[in-house]
Each structure stands twice: as C-alpha cells, then as structure tokens.
C-alpha cells in the first residue's frame, strides 16, 4: 500500500532528518494544494450543477470548464511533487490519460468506440445508445439506473450488424441498388426489398460473432442453471422509439431456444428491409447509413398476465388518467390486439383510484411452447371473465410506469408482464406519441392568484430541476427512511447519501442545509429527482402530510397540487436531458467526477488506480494531509519558529508551533497567551473551553483553575509530569489547526481548517481511550457521538473510539462547532467515571446541550 | 384553473424575441419564458431575427453577443434604431467589462454573463417588464 509505505519510509520518528525544503515553503505548497483542490471540486460541482437544469449554458462553457480543470489538476500534481519530494509519475500518467479522453470527447470523437459485438444488459449505461440502439439503451437505464426489473439477457450490437452486412456483401448491394433505383419505380423497390431480405436470411453469421453470441448464452446458462433457456429476440434500432416510434415495424421472435438464436437474429435483421419499414424510413428522410440494428436476446418471462400501459390515456388531458390493458399469458395478445383484454382507467396520482374497469371476455391466451414458438390455448373457464390484475398489481404498475415517466419527462407507453411469482418485469418503454395537450393557460403562479399558495420561493440551491407533487414526509433520523411512503417529498434538515435508499420512491427532496455538490445531489441528478437544498426553512415550513408542489425550475414550493405545472413539463418541445450539450457534459463528467478511490486504507488507494480527476485530487489531498501531519509531528524541531508554551488558566500543557500567522507573536517568542492566538480554529476551541465553563460544571472538577489538580487526582499521577504534558502539541496557522491532546488516559485529535471559503472548511475529531472499564468508556463514546450528531457531525463509533467529521460549513458555523468541541473536551474528560448506567447518557446529553447553549454564544439552527 | 386567474392575465402577454446561435440556449429559454407567462420566438441567426423584428414589434429582445454573421452588438444597435422602446438584454459567454460597458452605452437594459441561472434571467426580464408596464 503506497500511502502506508510512504509513511513508513518517512517514519524515521526517532531520528528525523531535516526536511530538504523549509517547512514554511512546504506548508505553502500544502495550502496551494488545498486551494486547488477546492477550485477543482468547485468546478466539478459547477459542471455537475449544470446537469441539474437550473442553468443555461452552451458548448463554450463546456470547453472552458474542461480547460480550467486540466490546468488545475496538472498544477496540483506539481505542488505535491514539492510537498512529498517525489516524482509522482503514476499521477502524471493518469492525468495524461484522462486529459486525452476529454479532448477526444470535446473534438466530437466518441471515447466510447463501438467495438463490442455483444454486451450484457447489466453492462449497459446511458452512453450505450449507439451500441445497442434506442430500445435496449432504454431498457438499460430502466434496469441499471432506475433499478427496475427487466428480463435478463444480452444485446448483439450495431457493430455486429455492420459486420454481418459487410461479411455477406449486403452493404454494397444496397448502395448500388439504391443509387440505380428510380424513386417512382415501386416494383423495383419491392424487388430490392425482397432481395436484401433473402440475402440476410441466407447469409452467414460471421464465425467470431457466432462465438460471441454463444459465449453470452453460456453466461446466461451459468446465471440461470435450472431452466431451459428460451429467449425473446427483439429489434433495437438507432432512432427506434425516439423521434419516430417505428412501432411494430420490426420483427420480434419470441420463445427461441438456444439452437435457433442465429436464425432468429437473421429474421429480425431481415425485418429492417421489409418494404413497409424501409419506406417508412425513406419517407422520413432517414439516410441508409443511419440505419443500424442491434438485436436483444432476453430470457422469456413466464408471464401470468401481461399487457401495455399508457401513463396518459388518449382522452382529454385534464382528466389526468392512465390506462392499462391486460390479458392472460404473453404480451402480444394485447399489443397486437389479437384477442380481448381488460382495460382499466386509473388516476395518475396515488392511490391510483380506478375510474373504470372493463373486463374483457378472455377465452384464449398466448403461451410459450416447450419446443419453442408460441401457441394459443384456452383460458380456464373461471378465469375468462375475471380481471387479470388485482389492486396491488395495479398500484405497483402505476408506480413503476410513473418512475419511468418522471425520469424521461415524457408520457410513456410501457410493456410489462407479471410472472407466475407475481414479479413485475418491464419489457419495453417508449415515449408516448399521444401527448397530453399543453395547458392552454400557463398560470403565472407566482404573481397571479396562486401567490397565496406560495410557501416559499427563491430559497436555497436547485440541485435537479423538475416538478414534484405529493405529500411531505419529514425525515429526522435514518430509521424514518424505513417507512418512507412512495411518492412523498422528502424534507429533512440535512442532505445525506443515505437517502439513496429512497431515491426511487421520492418525488422530490427539500433540505434545510447541505450543498449541491454532495453525494446525495449527484444521486438526485442521476435519478432526476427534483431537489432543492439549503433552503434554511424547509423543516420549519413543511410538516409531514402537507400536500405540496415543488417546482425547482422556478425554485418555488406551493401549497397543494398544481397539475398544470407537471403537464407543462411533460409537453415541452425538448427534454433538456436529451440535448447534445447535456449528453456531452454528462459523458465528460464521467471522466471527471466519479470517485473510485474512497477508502485510504484499501489496497486500491494508489496513484495508478486514479481513473478520474476526482480520484487524482482525492488521492493528492489524502497524501498531502498525511504528509503535513507527519511533518508537524516529527520535524517540529526544525521549524523556523520556536515552539511556544500556552500560558493559560486552562492547564492543557500545550505547545504550539505557529507555521503561519497563527499567533501575533514574533517567531522567537517562547510562550503565548490565549489572546495571542490568531488561528481561527485554535482560538475558537480555546474559547469554547473557557467560555462554556464546562470545567466548573463538570461533575467532578470544582473550578476552571483546579482542572489539572482534579484531573491528576482522578487519573494516574504520572500524567502530572511535565514530560507527559509536553506531548500535547498544536500546529497552527491563521486558518489551520492540528491538535493532539492527551488528557489522562484518553486522546483527542483535532484537525481543522476554517477559512472564508466554505468548501475549504473541515473539522476532523477523534476521541479514544479512558481510565475506566470498557463499558463506561463506551458510554462516554456514545455520549460524545450523540452530542456531535446533534450538532450535524457525521459520527462513527467503534467501541470507545469516536470519529466525527464535518465539512463545508460557513466559517461562522465552523467556529461554533469548534466551541462546542472545546466544551465537549472539558465536559467529557472525567465523564466516564460518572456514567454508571446507560440512561445517564441521555441525561448528560441533554445537560450538555443545555449548558453549551446557555454558556456560549453558539447558536445552532436546530436549537434556536 | 379558476376564473380569477384570467383577470390577472388581462394585460396582454409581453412579446419576447431570443437570438442566440447556440440552439440549446433558445431551446431552453423558450419554455421557461412561456411558463413565466410570455410569448416567445427564438432565432439562431441574426439575419432572420432582424427581418422578424422589422415585421413585428417585440417588447423584449434577449440577444447573444458573439455569433456567426452579424454580431449581437450590431443587432442591439439596429433594434435601438428601429424600435427604441424595445428592452434589450444582452447574454454572453465572453463577458468583459468593455463589452458590458458598450452594451449599456448602446442602450441595453442589462447584461447577463453565461452560464446563468434560469431564475436570474427571468428576474431580469421581470424587472424589465415592470419598467415597460410602468411606462404604459
């Protein structure tokens, strides 16, 4: 492991050699790394923000942002080279590679070349569209982004199509035939069609392609060992289900055994050149080279009931209804209208009340034959007049279809099936050609009579644009997520990546605090959940059960449901997410934003594993912080300033190394008072220690001045020795503090940066140990964790170890947090002795919170 | 919607023309302004925009500054010549103090640097609308 190895090599703890570069220079490089890191994170967040839809941007913006990023990342690596005195070759290599890919994208050359002949459905992502055609790209996001169930399988790609056509000389034939064809000669056109189809059906699947397909089937056979694999072999063209639906133009072959897959594949390809389909394309101005057919092979669903669903019924749009058609057995019954089916009209909003249910007389149903192919069989007598779907199934279907609609921002035509176990499978979803009518009058909701419905407007930061309607559900703690009702709007104090659990269920998210750059925001964009953060007032203005409409395109929250807003979104001419600029930016961000290097203790946390700019900056940040702490602790004898002993009525035995403007003293000064401290985090911490008066109210100690005496009375006397006390060390600058504090048998470690730029700020707090038995120490750990969680820290507890972090808060808030930590350090120093039972934890938490509020000026929105 | 809403719309909708050679800007601004209660026409080349301006009176013109063909600054001047009442908002990705100054000098109502938030541009238009309506 590189980091540890590096640290070990530097770990010449007992005989530190003098660093080759003056410490102040190294610290400047560290600061510079921090600054660039923040600029990069800001820029990444800024680019990410643009995907949220609140901003209008153009290509120029994308070019400039990428150029700046390249520059910052390069310089950050250069800074690290000086700080860690290494060449960091692996980082430069990673940088070069990512930069090259970005340039290729910007130049319009796909950095995702179409080279694969086959691909598993599970490997599809939003950029697979050229590879697998529209239909399967769509199934890809349904399965891999929205997490809905689709039949498993693989796709024979467009690359395979070109290879097949080329291999059999058909590409050339079509070119020649079309160039010689007189467009009025219908007969000739028919004969070209027939000829091409025959050439395809008689054609040979290239050997390499055939073996790729066989390999894919083998993978399926391993995944599903118990069943005889039967496949649905289905078309997926460029442009299909897109602007033009091509619905029903191309063939699907159902229930195909392994031995017949290649035949079915050719059948589907041939359907591209049926005279109807070809004419359809020519009629709409499609060029021949725009034609590429991918073919999906999916496992057959053992369908009990299947059908289609429109998220907007083809009736007056104001009625806001969805329509489901359902029949026993396989889907073609409904889709092709081959037999009678049930028709259910339901409301578009929960609980999806059925307006009408027409139960068809379903005498026959289509089922798979054991040997392959389909057959009609009789429906058992008692089921013929029975509705195919129960209310639970209808609800499930409605929810699922609307998840897809919300994501695509278009009414959807969804083909679905419930299998024999009652599991819902999405077979296909395409934008519905029948669109709801645009609302005639777009109410000027803010200025008009709806203004009385505005709960708040213009507050906070938009993370993802869109319209959400539903009931508020306030989440106070993680357990609340367990009961999150489908279709609710999540309202909470802060953002949390844990909300990923309910992203699918949530129609919208509103928080009091939090940034648009966090993990949750990324997820919200991924799922396209309309999200507003940092409103300051969400939990105060909204209560569980309130019916609201969240319109993040206008950054407004309305009381009640305003359906026109949602209809306006669904009827817009263009969906932003489908635009070229959006897609380009998203592809670029994939090379920039994802964080793969998460755990610094993992084997993979090394420079050569950096795959994105975020990885590089994360890696450098980690290495730089480690390096600085290391330098502070091990080389302090070589610092240019004399260590200063803190003279204070708080006898911490603290030695301070001021590396840059942390005190107002000259470098040679040997002692400092509290008033001399200019370091923002240090001053705040000390203030918290004294102002809070926690010493005085501490259950054991008597007053502030006698802290050390009471301390030594209770704990081991050896701690009173000056050698021990001298081990408490703080390295400070104007904005930075690294403090190692050993008090009795427990350790506090604090690493903090508090400046004017919100994104720079962080506090890292670690607490470990104690003099009492493990149980009492654990109670103290629990106490600390409870307190810090109340003040918005992210806290982890492992036995008696507490790690708490907070970052990206304003200077004012961070100063408040430091004061709280100051108070906490005092309050907890002997608390373990007093925590004789678990109930006391709660009592002391309440006591601490009350006291800290009374005795310091710390205000926290939660307690104000 | 209820009847009272109609009353709030009794003032005629303001007419907005948007000119930007990057189609994405037009595509996105159009629905946003429609939703905000305006009539919107968009153009990606200045020649067609100019000929449309000669045909029809627009209350508000939103124009990019740097485009192929005639640039936004000249477009701004020509609008101010032909229809001095029209409020012009300049949007640009190449914002400099000089170009901002020149825009104001030529009578632009405001100057907005790209990329911008939808809410910012809508606010700007609302301010301009207020000014226009107060003149009526």
UniProtKB/TrEMBL annotation, chain A:
Q: Which cofactor does it need?
A: Mg(2+)
The Pyruvate phosphate dikinase AMP/ATP-binding domain covers which part of the protein?
130-441
Q: What's the source species for this entry?
A: Desulforhabdus amnigena
Entry GO MF terms? ATP binding; metal ion binding; pyruvate, water dikinase activity
Q: In which pathway does it act?
A: Carbohydrate biosynthesis; gluconeogenesis
- Give the lineage: Bacteria, Pseudomonadati, Thermodesulfobacteriota, Syntrophobacteria, Syntrophobacterales
On whether Magnesium is a keyword of this UniProt record, the answer is yes
Q: Which residues form the PEP-utilising enzyme mobile domain?
A: 485-553
Catalyzed chemical reaction(s): pyruvate + ATP + H2O = phosphoenolpyruvate + AMP + phosphate + 2 H(+)
Keywords for this entry?
A: ATP-binding, Kinase, Magnesium, Metal-binding, Nucleotide-binding, Transferase
The UniProt record lists the EC number as: 2.7.9.2
Q: What PANTHER family does the record tag this protein with?
A: PHOSPHOENOLPYRUVATE SYNTHASE
Q: Which InterPro entries match?
A: ATP_grasp_subdomain_1, PEP-util_enz_mobile_dom, PEP_synth, Phosphohistidine_dom_sf, PPDK_AMP/ATP-bd
Pfam families found in the cross-reference section: PEP-utilizers, PPDK_N
Which branch of life, at top level? Bacteria
What function is annotated for this protein?
Catalyzes the phosphorylation of pyruvate to phosphoenolpyruvate.
Coiled-coil positions are none
Q: What is this protein called?
A: Phosphoenolpyruvate synthase
Family of the protein in this entry: Belongs to the PEP-utilizing enzyme family.
From TrEMBL, chain B:
Q: Which GO terms describe its biological process?
A: phosphorelay signal transduction system
Q: Where is the signal peptide?
A: none
By its UniProt entry, which InterPro entries does this protein fall under? Bact_response_regulator, CheY-like_superfamily, Sig_transdc_resp-reg_receiver
Q: Which UniProt keywords apply?
A: Phosphoprotein
Residues that bear 4-aspartylphosphate? 64
Q: Which top-rank group of organisms is this from?
A: Bacteria
Annotated Pfam families:
Response_reg
The record's annotation in SUPFAM superfamilies points to: CheY-like
Which CDD domains does the annotation name? REC
Residues in Response regulatory domain copies: 15-129
PANTHER family reported for this sequence: RESPONSE REGULATORY DOMAIN-CONTAINING PROTEIN (PTHR44591:SF3), STRESS RESPONSE REGULATOR PROTEIN 1 (PTHR44591)
Q: What is this protein called?
A: Response regulatory domain-containing protein
Organism in which the protein naturally occurs: Desulforhabdus amnigena
């Amino acid at each position: 492991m590189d980091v540890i190895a590096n640290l070990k090599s530097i770990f010449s703890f007992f005989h530190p050699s003098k660093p080759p570069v003056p410490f102040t220079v190294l610290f400047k490089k560290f600061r510079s790394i921090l600054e660039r890191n923040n600029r990069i994170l800001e820029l990444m967040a800024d680019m990410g923000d643009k995907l949220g839809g609140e901003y209008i941007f153009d290509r120029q913006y994308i070019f400039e942002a990428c150029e700046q990023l390249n520059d910052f990342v390069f310089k950050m690596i250069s800074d690290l080279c000086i700080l860690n005195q290494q060449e960091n070759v692996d980082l430069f290599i990673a940088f070069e590679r990512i930069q090259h890919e970005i340039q290729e994208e910007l130049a319009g050359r796909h950095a995702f070349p179409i080279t694969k002949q086959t691909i598993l459905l599970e490997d599809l992502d939003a950029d697979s569209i050229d590879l697998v055609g529209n239909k399967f790209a769509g199934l890809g996001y349904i399965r891999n982004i929205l997490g809905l169930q689709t039949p498993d399988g693989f796709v024979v790609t467009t690359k395979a199509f070109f290879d097949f056509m080329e291999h059999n000389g058909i590409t050339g034939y079509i070119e020649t035939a079309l160039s010689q064809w007189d467009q009025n000669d219908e007969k000739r056109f028919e004969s070209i069609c027939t000829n091409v189809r025959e050439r395809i059906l008689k054609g040979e699947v290239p050997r390499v392609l055939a073996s790729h397909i066989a390999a894919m089937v083998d993978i399926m056979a391993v995944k599903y060992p118990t069943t005889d694999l039967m496949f649905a072999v289905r078309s997926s063209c460029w442009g299909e289900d897109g602007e033009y639906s091509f619905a029903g133009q191309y063939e699907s072959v159902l229930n195909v055994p392994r031995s017949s897959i290649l035949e079915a594949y050719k059948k589907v390809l041939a359907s591209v050149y049926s005279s109807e389909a070809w004419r359809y394309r020519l009629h709409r101005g499609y060029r021949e080279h725009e034609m590429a057919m991918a073919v999906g092979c999916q496992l057959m669903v053992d369908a009990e009931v299947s059908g289609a669903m429109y998220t907007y019924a083809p009736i007056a749009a104001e009625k806001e209804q969805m329509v489901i058609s359902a029949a026993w057995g396989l889907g073609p019954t409904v889709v092709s209208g081959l037999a009678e089916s049930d028709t259910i009209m339901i409301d578009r909003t929960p609980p999806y009340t059925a307006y009408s249910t027409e139960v068809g007389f379903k005498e026959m149903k289509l089922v798979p034959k054991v040997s392959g192919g389909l057959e009609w069989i009789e429906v058992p007598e008692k089921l013929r007049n029975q509705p195919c779907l129960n209310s639970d199934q209808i609800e499930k279907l409605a929810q699922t279809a609307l998840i897809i609609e919300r994501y695509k921002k278009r009414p959807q035509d969804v083909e679905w099936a419930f299998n024999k176990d009652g599991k819902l499978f999405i077979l296909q979803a395409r934008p519905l050609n029948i669109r709801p009518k645009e609302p005639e009058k777009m109410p000027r909701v803010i200025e008009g009579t709806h203004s009385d419905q505005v709960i708040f407007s213009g507050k906070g930061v938009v993370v993802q644009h869109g319209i959400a309607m539903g009931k508020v559900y306030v989440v106070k703690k993680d357990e609340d997520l367990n009961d999150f009702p489908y279709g609710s709007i999540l309202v909470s104090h802060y953002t949390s990546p844990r909300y990923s659990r309910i992203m699918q269920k949530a129609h919208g998210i509103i928080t009091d605090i939090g940034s648009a750059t966090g993990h949750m925001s990324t997820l919200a964009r991924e799922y396209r959940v309309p999200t507003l953060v940092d409103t300051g007032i969400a939990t105060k203005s909204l209560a569980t059960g309130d019916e609201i409409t969240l319109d993040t395109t206008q950054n407004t929250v309305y009381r009640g449901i305003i359906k026109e807003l949602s209809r306006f979104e669904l009827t817009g001419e263009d969906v932003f997410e489908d635009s070229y600029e959006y897609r380009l930016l998203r592809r670029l961000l994939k090379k920039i934003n994802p964080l793969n290097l998460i755990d610094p203790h993992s084997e993979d946390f090394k420079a050569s594993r950096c795959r994105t700019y975020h990885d590089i900056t994360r890696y450098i940040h980690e290495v730089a912080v480690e390096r600085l702490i290391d330098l502070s602790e091990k080389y302090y004898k070589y610092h240019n300033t004399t260590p200063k002993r803190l003279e204070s009525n708080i006898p911490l035995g603290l030695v301070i190394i001021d590396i840059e403007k942390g005190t107002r003293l000259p470098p040679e000064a040997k002692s400092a008072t509290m008033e001399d401290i200019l370091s923002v985090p240090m001053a705040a911490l000390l203030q918290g220690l004294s102002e809070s008066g926690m010493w005085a109210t501490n259950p054991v100690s008597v007053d502030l001045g006698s802290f050390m005496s009471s301390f030594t009375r209770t704990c081991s006397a050896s701690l009173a020795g000056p050698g021990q006390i001298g081990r408490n060390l703080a390295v400070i600058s104007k904005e930075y503090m690294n403090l190692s504090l050993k008090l009795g048998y427990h350790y506090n470690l604090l690493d903090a940066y508090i400046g004017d730029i919100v994104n720079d700020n962080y506090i890292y707090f670690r607490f470990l140990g104690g003099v009492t038995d493990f149980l009492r120490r654990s109670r103290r750990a629990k106490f600390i964790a409870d307190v810090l969680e109340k003040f918005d820290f992210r806290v982890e507890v492992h036995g008696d170890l507490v790690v708490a972090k907070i970052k990206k808060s304003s200077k004012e808030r961070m100063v408040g947090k430091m004061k709280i930590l100051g108070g906490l350090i005092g309050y907890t120093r002997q608390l373990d002795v007093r925590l004789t039972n678990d109930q006391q934890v709660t009592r002391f938490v309440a006591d601490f919170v009350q006291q800290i509020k009374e005795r310091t000026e710390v205000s926290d929105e939660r307690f104000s | 919607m209820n009847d009272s809403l109609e009353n709030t719309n009794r003032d005629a909708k303001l007419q907005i023309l948007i000119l930007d050679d990057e189609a994405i800007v037009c595509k996105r601004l159009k629905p946003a302004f429609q939703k905000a209660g305006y009539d919107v026409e968009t153009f990606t080349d200045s020649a067609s925009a100019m000929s449309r301006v000669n045909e029809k009176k627009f209350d508000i013109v939103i124009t990019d500054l740097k485009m192929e063909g005639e640039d936004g600054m000249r477009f701004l001047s020509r609008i101010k010549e032909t229809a001095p009442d029209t409020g012009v908002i300049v949007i640009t990705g190449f914002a400099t103090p000089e170009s901002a100054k020149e825009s104001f000098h030529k009578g632009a109502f405001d100057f907005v640097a790209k990329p911008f938030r939808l809410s910012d541009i809508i606010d700007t238009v609302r301010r301009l609308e207020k000014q226009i309506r107060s003149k009526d």
